[in-house]
Amino acid sequence: MTTDTDVFEEHRPVLLGVAYRMLGRVADAEDVVQEAWLRWSGADRTEVREPRGYLVRVTTRLAIDRLRQVKARGEAYVGPWLPEPYVTDFADTVPDTAERAVLADSVSLAVLVVLESLSPLERAVFVLREAFGYPYAEIAAMLERGEPAVRQLAGRARKHVEERRSRYEVDPAQRRDLTERFLVAAAEGDIEGLIALLAPDVRLVGDSGGKTKAPLRVLDTADKVGRFMAGVARKGVPGLSFRFLELNGGPAVLASRGDSPDSVFQLDVLDGRIQCVYIIRNPDKLRSLAVV
Length: 292
Known about the structure:
Blueprint: H1 4-23, H2 26-41, H3 51-73, H4 90-93, H5 97-106, H6 109-115, H7 120-131, H8 136-143, H9 147-164, H10 172-187, H11 191-197, E1 198-207, E2 219-220, H12 222-235, E3 240-247, E4 250-257, E5 260-270, E6 273-280, H13 283-286
Parallel strand pairs: 1-6
Antiparallel strand pairs: 1-2, 3-4, 4-5, 5-6
Helix pairs in contact: 1-2, 1-3, 2-3, 7-9, 8-9, 10-11, 11-12
């Protein structure tokens, strides 16, 4: 016999996926999904015709409210901001390559950074339409808006994202190969080897939140990024271990000291060259990786 808990757990991955794309923060997304569970457990089942639709609608509205609260607080962030790393396993759970590419792109660090500049409603429409393929009519019902208004929001959001994001290759094998070569060159202090892997206009974005060491401004050009990485390697960080895992739809490296995450490295790649290096060191954003 299927229980209410069974139904909710069946849809939890989708709900967490919606909430994370809306918020860019794992803890906030989990809070929203927990609140959705409370709404679900207290709902009148005679008014719930389709559980998945009901749960996605509730989760989306809760995420919009949470996003508005975050924007209203207007908290100052020290240095560049990146989303909290999010563990994905599309390669294992999504057999369709085209669908996997769409999901990976919608949760990538590059796209989530751009989504931060959208209004909460624009972001909700973009996520539901582009990442999960919901028809405009269903999105309109979820948000209690007219379908023409939702189409307008979708068009505005899509245009904004397309204008501000760069296109990168999502081939995980190539990204992993370049990541391995990049880390080896950095560890050896091989500046020429690093520069050979980097696009001339490469960017390095470090997120520390001011709580640990990382560049407080975006570094650009192959020379600056290469010299920075070689310098970090020369100074050395004792006791670090490294391992690959899939984060935000692509291969990434988690550096840890014992059981404590120290940093996450991820690369964006195009035409065989590294276009962007992401380094996340804010300890608040790495807590969820301690149990991975």
